[in-house]
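Thread title: Can someone regenerate the structure for this chain?

I was given the following input by a collaborator and told the matching structure tokens would be attached. They weren't. Posting the sequence so someone can regenerate them.
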Amino acid sequence: MDPLMLDGNAVAGLLQEVFCGDMTTAVGTCSNCGASEPIGAVHCFRGAGIVLRCPHCNDALITIVSSNTDIRLSLSGVRTLWVGR
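Best answer:
Regenerated them for you:
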């Protein structure tokens, strides 16, 4: 396991700011391999930004870069995102 890797729960607070709710239970489907996992179960890497990767194929699902003034979010690796109510 990579020492810089956490699970998706590590960015729960940041995702809550963006989506206004608990995103750790939202289920994302990988655009590359088609696997579906709760966001809390994906692999999270922190560096200059945050990259959430598929635990099955390691493709980037979501990238997040935040500053004091804004949050930039890309969901380019997510085919669908199911958020329950």
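The beta strands are 5-7, 27-30, 36-38, 43-46, 50-53, 60-66, 71-74, 78-82.
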